[in-house]
Amino acid sequence: MNPQGLIGLEEKKLILIAISLMLTTITWNSTHILDPKKEIESSNSAVNIQVISLDWKWLFIYPDYNIATINEIAFPKNVPIKFNITSNSVMNSFFIPQLGGQIYAMAGMNSILHLISNSTGKYKGISANFSGPGFSGMKFIAISLADKNSFDDWIQNIQKSPKTLENIQDYKIISTPSVNHPVEYFSRD
């Protein structure tokens, strides 16, 4: 220590290094705890939803229930959701602000996002990435239902849809670019 009792330059450097290491450790740990690819621990099995970004709408496929929707998803509250996300064309960004977790949708790539809703309600979902002239209307609704029975009712309603998504021809029709596309349901025999 110098005679005036002030901290010297070397001591200041050590303090700054210690603070930097502490902040780096906190950031590293927090980032890995909140990793969107990390499964959410729960006694309930996750609802699997495949997400495909189309021009300018969202296609949601529920492989465990043989249904698909455009611009609407639903899930029971307090049940983990596993999203497998990709894009049919340009890069996009899947985002449900009230549930957290924004992640990119890119052609030829599979992104994974785990979310859970702790309360019932309807949440706005959006594309958070400019993707062309229909971008501003690329919105969807995410419905958090009260329980598994309500979710089963929603699934059964969609299974009654006369529209199907059975083959590549059906997919080509729905993947045709459209702006402000309405909600649509597809069943599979």
From TrEMBL:
<keyword id="KW-1003">Cell membrane</keyword>
<feature type="domain" description="Cytochrome oxidase subunit II copper A binding">
    <location>
        <begin position="44"/>
        <end position="157"/>
    </location>
</feature>
<protein>
    <recommendedName>
        <fullName>cytochrome-c oxidase</fullName>
        <ecNumber>7.1.1.9</ecNumber>
    </recommendedName>
</protein>
<dbReference type="InterPro" id="IPR008972">
    <property type="entry name" value="Cupredoxin"/>
</dbReference>
<dbReference type="Pfam" id="PF00116">
    <property type="entry name" value="COX2"/>
</dbReference>
<dbReference type="GO" id="GO:0004129">
    <property type="term" value="F:cytochrome-c oxidase activity"/>
</dbReference>
<dbReference type="InterPro" id="IPR002429">
    <property type="entry name" value="CcO_II-like_C"/>
</dbReference>
<dbReference type="InterPro" id="IPR034227">
    <property type="entry name" value="CuRO_UO_II"/>
</dbReference>
<dbReference type="GO" id="GO:0005507">
    <property type="term" value="F:copper ion binding"/>
</dbReference>
<dbReference type="GO" id="GO:0042773">
    <property type="term" value="P:ATP synthesis coupled electron transport"/>
</dbReference>
<dbReference type="InterPro" id="IPR045187">
    <property type="entry name" value="CcO_II"/>
</dbReference>
<keyword id="KW-0472">Membrane</keyword>
<comment type="similarity">
    <text>Belongs to the cytochrome c oxidase subunit 2 family.</text>
</comment>
<keyword id="KW-0460">Magnesium</keyword>
<dbReference type="GO" id="GO:0005886">
    <property type="term" value="C:plasma membrane"/>
</dbReference>
